[in-house]
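Format notes (please read before filing issues)

Several people have asked whether sequences and structure tokens are stored in separate files. They are not. Every record keeps both together, in the order shown below: the sequence lines, then the token lines. Line labels are part of the format and must not be stripped during preprocessing.
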Amino acid sequence: MVIKKAELAAVAVRPGGYPKGDMPEIAFAGRSNVGKSSLLNLLTGRKRLAKVSGSPGKTRTINFYCINDAFRIVDLPGYGYAKLARSVTEGWGDMVETYLKSREGLALVVLLADIRHKPSAQDVQLREWLRYYGLRLSVAATKADKIARGAVAAQLGLIRETLGLSEEERIIPVSALKRTGVEELLEAMESALAPR
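Then the structure lines:
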């Protein structure tokens, strides 16, 4: 897959603000500061499509990007940033779950997990939501440039075990800095969008 066109289609906090369900969607979800905005910008070839911030927790809306006039990438708000009020983070959980259970054209959810750490309780909860709603999952293990090559397999095994992934569910090590893993992730996205 080659992404030639990417533009913001909608910003929403509830279903009434979602764009029409006339295209398949691939959602990206993960903890604040996991590198989601940087990865989305790399995938789309746009430096400022998703806003990258030095302060985690800045995305507090669901952002819909129209890709190649054929499908949407959906940037779900990050979770787990401790300095934000509990009411805000709980509201994000409600926002994300509402999206996951109500969006019929959702073809794939890409869960971003920092390869250096064991997935958090919120990562596990998101994984459980996806299983409950019968949604397809791939995991992007971000910041792969920040660990030794020899440690990658062990960390991927830890992520797979903690999230309870099946053998069919892919984990793709990615690095926005080194621009690695992008082709594999685009292939996973293309496969999810193919008619079944």
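For reference, the curators noted about this record: Residues 82-89 have pLDDT under 50 and may be disordered. The two ends are 17 Å apart (CA to CA).
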